[in-house]
Amino acid sequence: MKANYFLAVLLTVGGLCQAGDAPSSLPLPVPAAASLPAGPLGESIVRGRAYLAQTKERLPDFVGNGLACKNCHLGNGIEVGTEPHAGPFVGVVAGFPQYRSRDGAVNTLEQRINSCFERSLNGKPLPLDHPAMIDMVAYMTWLSQGVPVGTQPGGHGMPQLKLPRSPDLAQGKAVYQARCLACHGIDGSGLANPAGGYVFPPLWGPQSFNIAAGMARHFTAAGFIKHNMPLGQGNSLSDDEVFDVAAYVIHQDRPDFPGKIKDWPQGDKPQDARY
Ligand code: HEC
Ligand code: HEC
User: Which atom of ligand 1 is least distant from the CA of 102?
Assistant: First the structure.
């Protein structure tokens, strides 16, 4: 009885998705803005969202490139981290603490956030009790309400796309020029916003993510691009085009990360690591 009920809900919600969508792209349970608590907690949540959207402007001492969290953890124009298949923060709190093979250790959510500060933002870790850290976790916790601890909604994390062949970098360059260059620029440096941040974020060069970032991994970059790029036209490129353009992008010059020598201490380095 209960199982049938859940199946019916799944089928109904699934019916709203585009044809061909896997069940993992069910809409995420984003809370209504009206459910923001009043008082100091609500203020902390709102500040947390602002740190995720304007990371460099608000935390210049901890960000070493031109990126903001929201450039990869895509949102809906108001909330940050609400898009499935783009590292959503909806439900993320229910998935931590978590064992991560890259560190060979169990990580808290705060440590996981710092890993994106050090690698995706090529910057420095925040002190774990820094007010901005508390605000960002407050925001993610608000977004995660209703997701039971130990479970994750469909579309969580960054997707991966892997093909059983070597990438073709020349083909990747051609795809870049046809489908990405108009926004991200001929040299991948994006388009800066004179008022701060970027209109189109940099994909390589000194202002982009470093070699040890999750987005520098070939299958992760391909999965993200497949679902989300060109912006607003996700899933419009073929798997082959995406596989090649992702390789082309990640193999351009980008900042190094000296701490990478400590990664995967158990020797279980994934096939698509850049080092
Ligand atoms: C260049 C893209 C990029 C930027 C910018 C970025 N991240 Fe990430 N983030 C990723 C990727 C890719 C992953 C998944 C990596 C993996 O495969 O484990 C991730 C994972 C995470 C996770 C874990 C998600 C989960 O479902 O387990 C959290 C939390 C997170 N990032 C927070 C942040 C915060 C906070 C910022 C800004 C300070 C940030 N990220 C900036 C790319 C980015
Ligand atoms: C219409 C403009 C546009 C096009 C075309 C486009 N992007 Fe993007 N891309 C964006 C914007 C804007 C963001 C940041 C989204 C945000 O902050 O909400 C982004 C984010 C990204 C990111 C994560 C952030 C970063 O800087 O690393 C990657 C990777 C990316 N795009 C790759 C691509 C690739 C590869 C293509 C071509 C297949 C492409 N994009 C085409 C506008 C575009």
Answer: 18
